[in-house]
């Protein structure tokens, strides 16, 4: 059974940093495309970053230059390093996996099959 478990969320002041982690199990992690998404109250879930099985990355314009997606295949863990955080980055953050890896760059919710339960990020001004 595929499982994704996020951690690392919390409260931080604007300008600060957080690193989110997503521990994955139940499948051949290294062959999947992975992504980070976020959802603020009253808003739709949106894609933040994606990473291919080979490590290519894609970012939403709103986080380019501030966020970095990476993965450690040996540890079966996906990361999201978030720097220069802004209040508008506050949201529940989710990791997701796409076993087909057909569109690794996708930041669309519909492209991903497996989802974690989320970790909350709150950025205060």
Mean pLDDT: 95
Q: Rough shape?
A: globular
Number of strands: 11
Query: Biggest sheet: strands, sense, closure?
Result: 7 strands, mixed
**Helix-strand category:** mainly beta
Count of alpha and pi helical runs? 0
Task: Describe what this molecule looks like in 3D.
This protein has 125 residues and is mainly beta. The chain has strands spanning 3-7, 10-13, 18-25, 33-39, 46-51, 57-59, 67-72, 77-82, 91-98, 114-115, 119-124. Strands 2, 4, 5, 6, 9, 10 and 11 form a seven-stranded mixed β-sheet that branches. Strands 1-3-8-7 form a four-stranded antiparallel β-sheet, with no helix packed on it. A hairpin with a 5-residue loop joins strand 5 and strand 6 (57-59). The protein is globular.
Q: Secondary structure elements and their pairing?
A:
Blueprint: E1 3-7, E2 10-13, E3 18-25, E4 33-39, E5 46-51, E6 57-59, E7 67-72, E8 77-82, E9 91-98, E10 114-115, E11 119-124
Key terms for this structure?
single chain, 125 residues, mainly beta, seven-stranded mixed sheet
Q: What would a concise description of this structure say?
A:
This protein is an all-beta fold. The protein is built from no helices and eleven strands.
